[in-house]
Write a structure and sequence with these properties.
Its main location: membrane. One of its GO terms (molecular function) is ATP binding. InterPro entries: AAA+_ATPase (IPR003593), ABC_transporter-like_ATP-bd (IPR003439), ABC_transporter-like_CS (IPR017871), ABCA (IPR026082), P-loop_NTPase (IPR027417), R2_ABCA1-4-like (IPR056264). By secondary structure, this protein is α/β, with parallel strands linked by helices. Helix content is 39%, strand content 16%. The chain has two domains: 194 residues, Rossmann fold (3-Layer(aba) Sandwich), CATH 3.40.50; 156 residues, no CATH class. A six-stranded mixed sheet has the order 4-5-6-1-7-8, sandwiched between helices. Strands 10-11-9-12 form a four-stranded antiparallel sheet, with helices on one face. Strand 5, helix 6 and strand 6 form a beta-alpha-beta unit. Helix 3 packs across helix 4.
Length: 386
């Protein structure tokens, strides 16, 4: 994808997490910095050198781990590292020792003299990262270095990358929010070739997170030996929007429940178009916007309704703007708008009504980095899927 109007810098000792959906322009940026692509306009500099005018000097200070392993399957890891060490200018008398130390650092001793075509995906990524580290480059470009790697190898690569960042500027592209949070000092989010946001993980959550995430688990209705009318719906498939709508609205909500689980965006548009529950509307008209914490219908006032549905009804009545994002049996997830109140106040409110709602556990957290990423790249992600 074309990269448009990108202004960004990475200092020595910093790791920039470079995020975006497929086609956002991440790999294009790295190819421009590496000299594989020439910019049609603008200037890109590596250690102060223009990539168009001083490619030899740029590549001498650059290490690049491509998205897909660029390995010669017939060569061993030792042969790869020896070849690259000679190309990168490691003194001839030091190459053998240098390569042996790097093999040990990569934990590839057992496979060092086997053709790399026989390696697992994790060992191939280790070798690709090792090739990028040869010659102590001042700038490291890592294009999804842990893609397709098992959790154990992924943790090893994270540790290796973290240990190499001290005197280097690192640009790391990834689809893993956990990886970005673990390694990056700053995070940049790209969409359609343009920079959407730049900052620390906490800054992005505070700036672009518009809601809290609530997760609750209700008590087991069967263990409570409730009557037939209170039986729990299987897999949450029959959980509907809050009671209080007209019959037509209730029927419409029930018809869209499957879409709500599979296509949450479409379900949200349907929910936004429908009028709010009657009791919520009455509260907002009679008591004003700040009174939604004052009263809420008790779950016990709705006989014949499952525990999960009672919780949904109570939450929708108490917190205007709340959205149910997931439902699986007794496990329910919601988004609560930030303007509803402070996190501490919401915790206090839920703690006070935990027994009334028959909850076994609940958690309330700030917007996750993954949700921020989805929000910032949402338009691009939708167009890609379409």
């Amino acid at each position: 994808a074309a990269v448009k109007s990108l202004w960004i810098s990475v200092a020595s000792g910093e790791c920039l997490g470079y995020l975006g959906v497929n086609g956002a322009g991440k790999t294009t940026t790295l190819k421009v910095l590496g000299g594989d692509l020439l910019p049609s306009s603008g200037t890109a500099r590596v250690v102060g050198k223009d990539v168009m005018k001083a490619q030899v000097a740029v590549r001498r200070n650059l290490g690049y781990c491509p998205q897909f392993d660029a390995l010669i399957t017939e060569l061993t890891a030792r042969e790869h590292l020896t070849l690259f060490a000679q190309i990168k200018g490691v003194p001839r008398g030091e190459v053998k020792k240098y390569v042996s130390e790097l093999i040990a650092c990569l934990c590839l001793q057992q496979y060092a003299d086997r053709p790399c075509g026989t390696y697992s995906g994790g060992n191939k990524r280790k070798l690709s990262l090792g090739l990028a580290l040869i010659g102590a480059p001042r700038v490291l470009l890592l294009d999804e270095p842990t893609s397709g790697v098992d959790p154990s190898s992924k943790r090893f690569l994270w540790k290796l990358i973290g240990n190499t960042m001290k005197n280097r500027a690192v640009i790391l592209t990834t689809h893993s929010m956990e990886e970005a949070a673990a390694l990056s000092s700053r995070i940049a989010v790209m969409a359609d070739g343009e920079l959407q946001a730049l900052g620390t993980a906490s800054h992005l959550r505070a700036t672009h997170g518009d809601s809290y995430e609530l997760y609750v688990v209700t008590q087991d209705a069967e263990k409570l030996q409730e009557g037939p009318g209170d039986s729990r719906p299987e897999n949450g498939a029959r959980i509907s929007q809050p009671v209080g709508r007209s019959d037509a609205q209730t029927a419409e909500a029930q018809e869209s429940q499957i879409a709500q689980q599979v296509l949450p965006e479409q379900a949200q548009r349907e929910r936004d178009a429908a009028p709010p529950p009657a009791h919520t509307l009455a509260q907002s008209q009679d008591q004003g916007p700040s009174s939604h914490h004052a009263t809420a219908p008790s779950p016990s006032l709705a006989p014949g309704v499952s525990l999960e549905q009672r919780v949904v009804n109570w939450l929708y009545a108490r917190y205007p703007g709340i959205q149910m994002t997931d439902c699986l049996g007794r496990h329910l997830s919601f988004k609560i708008p930030r303007q509803t109140g402070r996190l501490a106040d919401l915790f206090r409110d839920l703690s006070r009504h935990k027994e009334e709602l028959m909850l076994t556990e609940y958690s309330l957290s700030d917007t996750s980095l993954e949700q921020v990423f989805l929000t910032l790249s949402g338009g691009s992600a939708r167009s890609e899927s379409e």
